[in-house]
User: Fold this.
Amino acid sequence: MEAAAKRCQCQSLRAQDERYQKLAEIIAKHAGESGALIPVLHQAQQVFGYLPHDVQALIAEGLNVPLSEVDGVITFYSLFTSEPQGRYKVGICLGTACYVKGAALVLEELKKQLGIDVGKTSADGLFTLEVTRCVGACGLAPVVTVGDDVYGRLSPEDVPAMLDKYIQAERNGKA
Ligand code: FES
Assistant:
């Protein structure tokens, strides 16, 4: 009874959420097509920013594919994520040039400052930590990207001030 009430409340919240209406349209457009799963996941991720479990379940049902297949595709392709994403993606390059110049130490400091591991999002929802391959700025190694900003020759000591810039901007509503 309680579960049914919860489901009912959840469905009514979804009905008010435009994103679920868009998802229904995307699924309806591709239902019955072969090979529809990846394009639908891609479009759903654009709508939601990530692919939460309930979205995966709706896609599985709508496309008539097993939920395990949906989960398998999301796990296999790195462009898909089932984790909520932070406002800023913080990417530490672990390409050879950056690694040689101490990127691993910068990564440890990023983990410490953000309190998260690679692939996770900070508790305040601001930052998602990622490892990248060479971003083509080897002369600036080690390189960190925050959103569209690129930081070169970064030492672990530079990390707090770099992150603080975004935290302050967010607090001041300038982000
Ligand atoms: S290896 Fe890091 S930018 Fe090239």
In short: The longest helix spans residues 2-16. The mean pLDDT is 91. The chain is about 50% helix and 10% strand.
